[in-house]
Amino acid sequence: MAGEKQESPWPLPKFYFSVDISDVGEDLPFQEVSGLDVEAQPIEYRAGNSKVFSKVKMPGLIENANVTLKKGVFAKDNGFWDWYSQIKLNTIKRQTVTIKLLDENGDPTMTWTLKNAWPTKITSTDLAAESNEVAIETLELVHEGLEISTG
To answer: Is residue 92 part of a domain?
Structure first.
């Protein structure tokens, strides 16, 4: 029944989260975060003296997906463009990006930490004279590792 103490916990809602980019700012107001994926590429191998007529699959290199962040466009907010404009011949200021899924009290329940992240792509908003939507820009980050922690 509604209002009674639940025997089992509810799944966490995904709408209450915060993003912190180490030098850009804390608790940035993003609308959406996607691409928190990590994958181990399989390596197929079969030894010549194996009595089994099939390959064995082993874990290979770890592949991290690009993380996409979407947020509203604000007047005089050029932080991401300033960061992106620092790319010069294999040099860029790499940042630690922390994404936290929060509970109803604002405490982190899950944390994703991107190591050495930098912007690979920025997509500006589209413009339409007959639209009444908020202007949204997209920031795509590459990184060198994803750590996940709970609690």
So the answer is: yes
